[in-house]
Design brief:
Length: 372
């Protein structure tokens, strides 16, 4: 128990540690999760409470089992999925960069490629953050995954949409000068934002889809919503796990609040000048050796700082807003500590001095680079 297996970052291109993990938790549960996002898991074995749980591969049957001290708890694969005779094949199990646990075989004598014989996830868009922050996952056949950005957002990397998106315009829905005419609701049919205790702002019963749409529009703390089965669920930022997955999301209606300026920017997002600028920025990131997957949320904070709108990140938290100056200082210190150039990171002594206020925090290099 406590054993972990990680995905790679990007197929056969990047074998560094990815954002997905299979873990045998100390409570006995086997969990697949997007661990970089403090995800509690999108699949689990429902074996919590069992002792000395393991995942084993039986060489005689080429099957995987979840076992404990008493024996087999649950088979992961079945005999229908594994070719015979067993000894004629090589076998391997991996977690893909799409967050799926899979078993593959390769014929020792006549094989020329690995063949997929089993996978844990059969509906790929249920995998958390599969299209990144502010991304939208669709899979008409539950095989191929298509990632694009939600309305009002653009891809961090046009060549790899699964890395997530950033807002075209930074807005504070709760700004005192904001009016209803500054925003619009984009409706996405047969779509959903997967429920999560941290993402859900509130929910209420209503048979009227228009009432749900109005509730999203009227609540400045709400960024999106979903109407399904006479229930309206309002969502907070950041928006994760937006999806259209057949048949799971049929008859659901998703709403997302977008600024009018963001809509205008969306129409211009494919212009050559803008594409060149985004690509240039991403090349700078790559040259510095930064992992884009690890920087998605950081990039969001950087965009807010650059736009002078850091307050929008915590606009829903009145306690933090009451001491916003302290939050701003700690955010800046945090950005210093994760600077992509290790030589510019402050020592622990200086960090303590910045926290105590005896040393000026200053503008972190990443923020300064974005502004310039």
């Amino acid at each position: 128990m406590g054993t972990k297996l990680y995905s790679n970052a990007n197929g056969a291109i990047d074998y560094s540690t990815g954002k997905y993990r299979l873990e045998i938790q100390m409570d006995g549960n086997l969990v697949l999760s997007a661990f970089r996002f403090a995800d509690r898991g999108y699949w689990n074995s429902i074996t919590a409470g069992k002792k000395n749980v393991s995942l084993i591969f039986n060489q005689s049957t080429a099957l995987m089992y979840i076992v404990d001290d008493t024996g087999i708890i649950s088979p992961m694969t079945t005999t229908d999925e594994v070719p015979t005779p067993i000894e004629d094949y090589y076998h391997r199990a991996t977690i893909t960069d799409r967050g799926n646990l899979q078993q593959w075989v390769y014929n020792k004598r006549v094989g020329n490629q690995w063949t997929l014989v089993w996978q844990r996830i059969t509906e790929p868009c249920i995998v958390n953050t599969i299209c990144g922050v502010f991304g939208f996952c669709s899979s008409p056949d539950n095989k191929e995954v298509n990632c694009k950005c939600l309305p009002g957002y653009s891809p961090l990397d046009p060549n790899n949409p699964s890395r997530g998106c950033y807002p075209d315009v930074m807005v504070d829905f709760c700004d005192a000068n904001s009016t209803a005419s500054d925003f619009a609701i984009e409706v996405i049919e047969n779509a959903d934002f997967i429920n999560d205790v941290f993402a859900d702002l509130s929910r209420f019963r209503t048979t009227d889809v228009n009432e749900c749409e109005k509730a999203v529009m009227d609540d400045c703390l709400c960024a999106a919503g979903v109407w399904y089965d006479s229930t309206c669920t309002k969502k907070r930022l950041p928006l994760l796990n937006a999806r259209r997955s057949y048949p799971s999301t049929n008859d659901r209606v998703a709403f997302i609040k977008v600024s009018q300026m963001g809509i205008q920017e969306q129409h211009k997002k494919d212009s050559p000048s803008r594409l060149h600028r985004v690509t240039e920025e991403l090349h700078q990131v790559d040259d510095e050796g930064r992992q884009v997957e690890d920087m998605i949320l950081v990039d969001w904070v950087l965009c807010c700082v650059k736009a002078g709108n850091l307050r929008s990140i915590v606009s829903h938290d009145l306690e933090v807003l009451e001491d916003f100056r302290r939050f701003e200082t700690m955010t800046m210190i945090g950005l210093w500590c994760i600077c992509s150039n290790p030589t510019l990171r402050p020592s622990m002594k200086k960090v303590i001095q910045m926290l105590e206020g005896t040393v000026e925090v200053g503008v972190p290099p990443e923020v300064d680079a974005q502004i310039s």
